[in-house]
Amino acid sequence: MKPLVSIIMGSTSDMPVMKAAAEFLDSMEIPFEINALSAHRVPVQVMQFATAAKERGIKVIIAGAGGAAHLPGVIAAYTPVPVIGVPIKSSNSIDGWDSILSILQMPSGIPVATVALDGAKNAAILAAQILAAGDPAVMEKVVAFKQDLASKIEKANKELREIKYKFKVDE
């Protein structure tokens, strides 16, 4: 089995956030890999990884980074594969804003899809949706996931209707 999605992070200290992406992809039975790569500490390895991703069969890259958060953008500069950036509130972060803006504010021609701060699960959901555009089996799983989300809200509303207050109106 070869990976379709690559989860990368600046260091293993990002794993508590990025594991949500791995868990979601695992639940969807989408093959993935996980690596630590630093745009600052091993820039040559980052370049080699990014330039080889397409030929290796990687369809989507999820890149998490904190602080200056250059990893997603550097990866995007070297590959035609879609990159989803996960800004991470790290120990050297300015409330996560530095990471958000570093990933979000990419120059024209080098897009990085950006999810919420510490939003690794949403990155994995987006990766699955990208894959689903060309894979009916993944599309079925994405549709089932979305239907499950809707059913949870329907159940919550049913439970809320059972709560009684003197001035609560149920229509």
TrEMBL record:
It comes from Candidatus Coprenecus avistercoris. PANTHER family: PHOSPHORIBOSYLAMINOIMIDAZOLE CARBOXYLASE, PHOSPHORIBOSYLAMINOIMIDAZOLE CARBOXYLASE CATALYTIC SUBUNIT. Its EC number is 5.4.99.18. InterPro entries: PurE_ClassI, PurE_dom, PurE_prokaryotes. Belongs to the AIR carboxylase family. Class I subfamily. Keywords: Isomerase, Lyase, Purine biosynthesis. Residues 3-153 form the PurE domain. It holds the Pfam family AIRC. Catalyzes the conversion of N5-carboxyaminoimidazole ribonucleotide (N5-CAIR) to 4-carboxy-5-aminoimidazole ribonucleotide (CAIR). One of its GO terms (molecular function) is 5-(carboxyamino)imidazole ribonucleotide mutase activity. Pathway: Purine metabolism; IMP biosynthesis via de novo pathway; 5-amino-1-(5-phospho-D-ribosyl)imidazole-4-carboxylate from 5-amino-1-(5-phospho-D-ribosyl)imidazole (N5-CAIR route): step 2/2. HAMAP family: PurE_classI. This is N5-carboxyaminoimidazole ribonucleotide mutase.
